[in-house]
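@channel sequence for tomorrow's demo:
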Amino acid sequence: MASPLRTRKRAVNVSVSADLLDSARSRGINLSAILEAALELQLRTQRREEWLAANAAGIDAYNRDVDEHGVFGDSLREF
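structure tokens (generated this afternoon):
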């Protein structure tokens, strides 16, 4: 599902190895689609890393609590 922010396109100039460009074009590869997908993946990866770094203390505290006390409902399980 495309967000409204991504539906508007803007032209940009990029430099690509001539051999790589020729190979991609000869195979009918949509350069714009590939670039968008790669940028989305890179941004998603960076946002994840930033979120993990910003929340590391809370995650560590939660994991210590689980190690010490278990998780909710552990006492209700049948083993």
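heads up for whoever presents: Residues 16-71 form one domain.
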